[in-house]
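Quick one: structure for this chain?
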Amino acid sequence: MSDPSAVDKVIPTIGISIGDLNGIGPEITLKALRSIGILTQLTPVIYASAQTLSFYQKILRLSDFKFHEIQDLKEVAPGQVNLLSIWQESLDFQPGKPSSMGGKYAKISLDQSVNDLKKKVIDGLVTAPISKELIQKEGFDFPGHTEFLASVFGLQENLMLMVNNQLRIGVVTGHIPLKKISSMLTKSLITSKLEIFLNSLITNFGIKNPKIALTGVNPHAGENGLIGSEEQEVIIPVIKEFQAAGHLVFGPYPADGFFGDDQFKNFDGILTMYHDQGLIPFKHISMGAGVNFTAGIPAIRTSPAHGTAFDIAGKNIANPLSMINALYLAADLAMKKLSLP
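Got it. Here's what it folds into:
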């Protein structure tokens, strides 16, 4: 007799943009989708071409890798690796060699997959690594995926959120030059990023009353204004406003000691002030297993927390763990969203 309380499990359809064709994106995608049990958790749809998958299947010696080629998302087959064939041109793949071809087709894959994500015909999206330099030559006028997604969804702000097990690190300023950080750090920007962070921890990660730490921007978090004024003038006033509203927000903490002494383990999330301040400790702590999640958009998008790695592309040595985790996180968050009334 079946359990009357049991319900059918929701299996989300997760799109995958292939990334730069000469980087490690295709390799980690194929390897990740061979992971045991992954097709019971999600139905993948790769945005590429049959030639692309067949080429990498051959050079990676993945003779057991099978894919189901489709021309329309209505043909998606659960329990299989689906390939949505979005170009037919025969391409000259050169793994490890940056080229305009890689940027061109990375953009084609990204544009169509994000369009389908926005139309809600896929439940989530995992983006394989792109070369920012090469894709920008194809008319991609954004410093990265995060900024592109904000534009697509018509948002002023979203949040780059790095995730690994219980570690969640957001960054206030993303892909900008270091010399611009101080002028970019305003009360309104930090407030916006912190609001997005709080909401994401509650809605995406199910943490009812999240505890968040903010780092300072200057050495020693400014030493009470002796080494820079951003903490006193900008960061601390924002923290006090959120505390007055009843939120568990603390800081600013000197970043070196905060991460070096494992203080981060006492918090549900950490909001850092700039890209490398957050990503250097994150990548060290996550040891290649971390995931990039875009918080603050009305859709689910994740990516592996690394780049194209042209130096190892085509050598069959790329580790797919970050891609595997990106797929599982996208599926988990999409399932939660699909289960909402």
